[in-house]
Amino acid sequence: MTLAETNLRPTVPEAGTRTAFLVIAGASVPDGKLLASVRHPGEDLAPEDALRRAQEANEPIPVSFQAPVAVCVLRVAPDFTLLNFKCLDAPHFRPREIVNQFWFGVTHYNARLVTFNGRAFDLPLLELAAFRYGIQARDYYLARDRYRGPIDLSDWLTNSGAYKLAGGLDVLAKLIGTPGRLFSVPAGGIAEINDRCLCDALDTYFVFLRTRVMTGDITSDQEAALVAGAKALLSTKVAEAPVLGAYLAAWAAAPGRGPTVGGAPEPAGTGAGAP
């Protein structure tokens, strides 16, 4: 059995725990060696110098020059219950093994992927990494249609990019009362990047639940029960993932933010007599 199988394959699936959705969040670092080879051929440029030039140009480095260093995955049941989570290849976080475990899990669970901005970042990153390392993702490509393909919540909430969602995932998380972004500065080491990634995956899950209220798949009462169940699960996992302590504490510190809008200010120019 491979390391990927050890980390992702459930031993004896329990009744009612079938995985219907995999909520994912990823992060990457620029590949300086690839940048030097493609953008500065013949210059014998060191990878760190190629990265410095790219940073000085003040332009985003395209996903094709990135390598994944974090992928956190949440397993979600057909009734939208949070079953478990994992940051792949912890604590080593080796790019090739992260990618291997990810595509193994996609094939094994045969579940719909749920992302935030995944169509523009997470999925191209992992597709290109599968290409780079020669890793099979057959079932994923067979399932890329409107009924079984990935759900990108950024696309879903912006009518396929019809407008720019200022604030992104952070603003959506805070609109529904979940912690949102915990870190005000870029993460430092790879472990910290994975911590941020796990928090992003959790925010994506809770945003996903709210969109399922909108689609009528669950009621508001069911959403509240699912959120409570997820928080209870996370509280049992703090020793395994200490960042969850900060995540839950941030949630508790903002009791005024919640899933209702009763306290929101009335739009200017409207009132009882407004049409």
UniProtKB/TrEMBL annotation:
Pfam families for the chain: DNA_pol_B_exo2
Superkingdom per UniProt: Bacteria
UniProt GO molecular function: exonuclease activity
UniProt KW Glycosyltransferase keyword: no
The entry's keywords: Exonuclease, Hydrolase, Nuclease
Domain Predicted 3'-5' exonuclease PolB-like: 61-251
Protein known as: 3'-5' exonuclease
Source species: Gemmata obscuriglobus
